[in-house]
Amino acid sequence: MMPSVSVVIPVFRSEKSIALVVRELGEALPQMTNCYEVILVEDNGDDGSWLVIESLAGEFEWVRGFRLMRNYGQHSALLCGIRAANFETIVTMDDDLQHPVDKVPSLIELLSEGYDVAYGTPQRQRHSLLRNLASILTKWVLQGAMGAETARSISAFRAFRTSLRDSFANYNGPLVNIDVLLTWGTTRFIAIPTPHAPRTLGKSNYSFDKLITHTFNLVTGFSTLPLRFASAIGLLLTLFGLIILTYILLSQILAFQFEVPGFTFIVSLISIFAGAQMFTLGIIGEYLARMHLRIMDKPAYIVRQSTEDKESVQ
User: Fold this and answer.
1) pTM value?
2) What is the structure's pLDDT at 17?
């Protein structure tokens, strides 16, 4: 039998599918382990998902539910569930029936081989072309933030040791990425290919523009790559300006001409340098904004109510 397992599922506008996911887990988990729980975190999707979760918690004693005050995002909802987990292994998965429950033992088995985090990477991404491109870009950026090759194979279907949450126990900020937070506690990652079932109910809540925004927040919130990029642009343009200046001075001196023609050329150079400066200041501004949010101590999430409350907040 496997070690005890806490399955954490962020729920967003999934009133039609979440009950099916829980019942599927209810059939599979008893065959895997004697101690298990399913934690459902409803991310304020403004549908009937919370009512379904309350019903499931009343029907199954191993189901726990949390409802957030507002929509904080998938990773903040995951953080809430991870911190509430009671057992030694945590498995995260989506609420749309696309992650295969029968592959959970395979992920947990990898942990027994010495790894701390195991991903179930989709063999085939069943999304639109733009969504797939945005996903690839996000993983490329995440690789720089995580500093691990496995970042290219990350997935919402993951298993990891619950003890890893100690490394980010004090983290509290509006920008959350579980995969980056996990790197604060380990470098032992592995990924295996798993089937990715087609979505039969509802539609994906991650659009192309949302993924681009997520990527931008990720790279500026958890890495210094943009600052290094801005520094590189500044250095290259400075060298370019020095080369142009040297060329103009030498050409004029050798030709015994001391009036420098080319107003348009000079204006274009000024525009380039001014644009580079504004671009660099913009990147620095993004980092200052994130520092401002951290100083404000804005929480990653706030729980409105849970199925464990005796009296729910209305």
Assistant:
1) 0.76
2) 92
